[in-house]
């Protein structure tokens, strides 16, 4: 049997911000292949392009040159947990966890059930109707993790991840 098809491949990937003499080469060139089931951790100094790579993988930035492809079979192939959590202050904890499901147009009853399941798994069930301002930093991280996992992504992108509970 051959090698499994990679979940993520990058070839000659670069990202530059700005133009001319003020241009900043933020990433690359980079070649990378991530196999199914593989856990990859990018380590490097601040400003070396780790977050830029994740944002390209999540579809939030376009590469300057090269390609990055995600090979999955699902509608929601990847979910990202941002360094600053990326949760919405004006939404309850439950609404934050349900957000990706709402974007996918998962029926409300199913979305509420999946959100409740992940809130329970993360030890946040008692805070479903609270707002993020009432939570500790660690609890906000768990809300971000629950939101990412609720959509059942094939690829989980984590920018400076917390330890998983």
How would you summarize this macromolecular structure in one to three sentences?
This protein has 165 residues and is an alpha+beta fold. It is 28% helix and 21% strand. The chain has helices at 50-57, 93-103, 108-121, 137-150; strands at 8-17, 24-34, 65-70, 78-81, 155-158.
Tell the overall outline. Answer: globular
Which ranges are low-confidence, i.e. pLDDT below 50, for 5 or more consecutive residues?
A: none
- Tally the helices: 4
Distance between the termini: 36 Å
Largest sheet: 3 strands, antiparallel
The percentage of residues in β strands lies in 15-25%
Helix content: 25-40%
Order of helices and strands: EEHEEHHHE
Main-sheet strand order equals 2-1-3
Number of strand elements: 5
Would you give an account of this structure?
- One of its GO terms (molecular function) is ATP binding.
- Residues 8-164 form the ABC transporter domain.
- This is ABC-type nitrate/sulfonate/bicarbonate transport system ATPase subunit.
- InterPro entries: AAA+_ATPase, ABC_transporter-like_ATP-bd, ABC_transporter-like_CS, ABC_transporter_ATP-bind, P-loop_NTPase.
- With 165 residues, this protein is an alpha+beta fold.
- It has 2 domains: 8-70, P-loop containing nucleotide triphosphate hydrolases (Rossmann fold), CATH 3.40.50; 78-158, no CATH class.
- It has 4 helices and 5 strands, in the order ββαββαααβ.
- The model has no long low-confidence stretch (mean pLDDT 87).
